[in-house]
Amino acid sequence: MSDDHSFTAHGQRRRSESLRLGRENRATFDFLEESDRFRVTIQRLTSSATHDVQLNLAGYAVSANAEYRVTFSGRADAERTLSLGFSKANAPWSNAGLYRSLRLTTDWAEFSADFVATLDETDARIHFDIGNSPIAVELSSVSLWQATENGVVLLPRRESGAAWRGLDRSSPPPVGTPIAGFSSWVASVPNPESPRSLGYFRMFAVLGTWMEADIVAATVHNAMLQGCECVYVVDNGSTDGTQEAAVRAGAVIARSYASDRYDEDLRLRHMNDVVAEVSQTEGDSHIWWLFLDADEFPHGPWGMTLREYLATLDEKFRVVGTRFFNHYPGDGPSYEPDRHPIDFQPLCEELAFPMCPSRHRKHPLLRFDRDGPRIESAKGFHTAYCDEQLYEPSQPAFLHHFPFRDKDLTRRRLEALWTKDPTGTTRATEWHDTHMLARFRSLDAVYAQNWSRVENFVSLDPINEIVNAPASGVAPRPWAEMVEPEHQHVKRWYDTPMVGVWKYASTGKFHYGDDVTYRRGIAFLDGRGTIEDWGCGFAHARSFVTESAYVGVDGSSQWADKIRDLREYRSDADCIFMRHVLEHNVDWRPILANAVNSFRRRMVLIVFTPFSDSTRIIATSQTVTSVPVPDISFRKEDLTAYFSHLKQAEEMVETETQYGIEHLFYIEKPDDEPAIDSLQRELEAWSAADLTPRFWWRDDDAVTDTLQLRRLLRIAEELAIVPAIAVVPEQADESLAALLSEADCCVWQHGWGHHTQTAGEFGEGRAADTMALEASAGQRILDRLFGPHGWQRVFVPPFHLLSMRFKALVPDLGYLGVSAGVQLTPPIDHVVEVNAEVDVMNWPERRMLGDLAIRGRVAEQLADRRTENTDPTSPIGILTHHLVFVEEDWTRLTELFRFLQSRGAEFPKPAGLFPSPATVAPAAAREPAGVTVVITSCGRQDLLERTLDSFIKYNSCPVAAILVMEDGQPETNRRLAARYSDVDIQWLSTGERIGQIPAIDAAYRHVDTEFIFHCEDDWEFTAPGFIEKSLAILEANPAILQVWIRSLTDTNQHPVLSHCLFAGDVPYRVMQPGHHTEEWGTWNGFSFNPGLRRRSDYLAIAPLASFNRGEEKLAYETERDLSAFYLDRGLLAAILADNDGMGYVRHIGSGRRIEKPA
């Protein structure tokens, strides 16, 4: 085993001792009960991080500010160091007051470490970090003591999760239950009631294959059904047509490689590399990746696809685990190609392992975040690697595993893995591929359904020291008995939800429930034109129609007038009656969208399931149907979103149905007439009144050069319409600037990063100064991309949400005005507001609205202006989103614009909708702050380039100067000087390598401002506002020496005091002084990490090199001694505590340390 949670244990462990292994490290952990002694033997180290081999002793309860002591005895096989720490034993991780380095020799020695606990914690741990050396370690008598009034007292430990050890074949433990022996690399928490979900993301799959031509097409089809836009195949040299079958199913062969043996490390390296390469190439901010083997078929909970489920999750979740079901063949055929295997193998057994606190065996869904740390899948997709704490939702997805298909084919494949070649070598390895070995040995027993003789692969695995699984014996049960009814529905790509559902041959004509809702619904429609009964079944509604023509529409009913698939059917009916249809169709969304876009006058929608807080399947049945039919409970807003723009009324009545109630929605189109006729009539009324209708076009979310955006610009040119393109500054790139600079369009600013805050990026609930900083940062990016005069300073708020506080600031920030959608906030006299009132998107379906709905909305806006509720000369804004348009949408949009132009409509240029810059009082120019930015570099030009790019992008404070000091030859930065020629940077150099501290002195001699923002060449900035907020702190508190801008959870293990202080409305905390470690000494907070400091504090000790006269100290030792000097003078370091604790920078130089020059 080599996952992050792996270890091998010998002997009987009485308590919660565990060994955590990071990356691909391997070690054994021996516990000798008779002497209370531990031994850790390190077999392989692939990383140098001390904490990547970590012995944990959890189960301690401590109180903040109480005094404690850790004692133990220790030795090593050769002289080495280890780090002793005391911290929380669960996420979110936090040091609890102790972390120091200790030296071990070959002789036993006693150790003691005193500390003051920094937090209250009921499950804390002593940990020994030993990953810095491969030398074995032995420890004994590890104890925690507390100082009390009556002396020092030994503290007991409690068991941590022992009750949940082992293989569970029924159901997972309570969410978050810790598992002894395994680290919580991921924290499992519920999805919030009001999640901050991603507004837009993409989804791909990466599929590993070897000799699986029989099933790979079905795997690809299922992945696409679950929402994956593309499936990228990484094939291990298959010769059976696997690659060809995958391509025919629509997959892309990303890599094909050959190997003599099955190598999981190599396979994962290829798959992770494909994910990284595609993610970088696509350019999207967020991409969910589904890692798959060819015999794995996942789906979401509550009858959802995976993509539908991911869309409901809070943005903090970057991992989704799955409940794992191993399937077995029963009677009849084991499998047929390109079918879901569950049709043939409903028998299954759930496997739950301690791969995470919730015992999800696999975690195949990982999210790439362009601005987040890289995340990689570990072996078998069981866990993942990431430099930040990961979170998964407590509600998992589901994964079905089908390793046994056609018996002969399965045997040949397994024989190819386990038959020895002439050298005695097998393709698979017994110690590593135990799951495949168990299948090979159990093949005959499986197909004979001799379940007691089926070997348990876990019993062959080192993990069995924890799991204690039996050597053989399985107990498969039908899938429908394994999970709750709401999760049982498994969608197929060949589903035909309305065709052949009813067992008409064996079911007499009937209708469900009483007649109440039939009577009320038909009464609302009768006499208003033809009534189409969608999902008519036995056409019982026909008996209540007295005046209108009746047309029954169904998938297969002999009583239907039309046989149609409602997912694809559209009509032009006067009225639609739909009773008990959506509740039984997992594809209810396109059905409802089609219905709303198909009726001209009235519609009645009737559902009999109760509403709930989320749309989900609550039951399934198959009494009178040919396939299992779900009962879906809806979140009401998910339904009404499809007809919220229409007149509607709702009624709930008690009826004789399963749940005792039915909900009726009475829906009407404007003026109870066809929308297309109302638009035509409204345009005729404008012509009769000698009025000229005026429109303008805005498109949102531009970030890069795409085919969709090029299509939009081509259509605009053909129609002679100048569109306004709303650009997202934080995500915008040079390719977009090049494209739009050559096009006849108007560029506006679309928020900052289009981030999904709960209240909207610029909505109520966010600090006005934070929003102002982000908006200003966006202006600077657009200035750099398009030039100060290459775009029009109009602000377009994401999601149309705009707080009144920010709206009032718009002129002061230099904007000509704002443009949202339908006006949601009251007008402000001095703020020009021109909104795009007609959004053509059907957002629940992420596609364009139907023609009737769009034309109806246009007619409403025209009527409003003609009747002078609104200025008739005010143009109507039509809003599009090019990124989600498909070919049909472009055609329909073009037809709409041509229709309006043919009726005399004008399309003025958007730039003319706002006053010219000369008529608007310019924003007060911001004087440069008394700050000089100093960036020190030492030959790492690739890192320096990333540092400069991100600083220029995110710095929102005008500064007096930017100095780059190269510790080396001046020509080193010649290329960068040319690249940044448009940025005022002074390029300095020491001439030759002199070391970090002397180079800082050399740079500071060029500074004459009051403040210095110091930064090294290996930091990437992530958010604006850090200099302004740091200035506020230094100006408010003279006792603060410098301000850190790292994340509160990324302080290089330096504790932070819990009390929060404020400089105005800027929150900050103080770095704990007197923090001591054996490895680093005593540290008081001063650091050369990015941060603002006073020049006067530097001059008080200048030069820094005076603290290293003999030049024998390492840079960090000088840093530490400076820290002590400043503390003696009462100066402390602070850290910004806003931005949700995320900080403003992240370190990018790990493993790139430059050694001190000789």
Automatic annotation (TrEMBL):
Alphabetized Gene3D superfamilies for the sequence: Galactose-binding domain-like, Spore Coat Polysaccharide Biosynthesis Protein SpsA, Chain A
Highest taxon listed in the record's lineage: Bacteria
Domain named Glycosyltransferase 2-like: residues: 932-1055
InterPro entries the record matches: Galactose-bd-like_sf, Glyco_trans_2-like, Nucleotide-diphossugar_trans
Protein name listed in UniProt: Carbohydrate binding domain-containing protein
Phylogenetic lineage: Bacteria, Pseudomonadati, Pseudomonadota, Alphaproteobacteria, Hyphomicrobiales
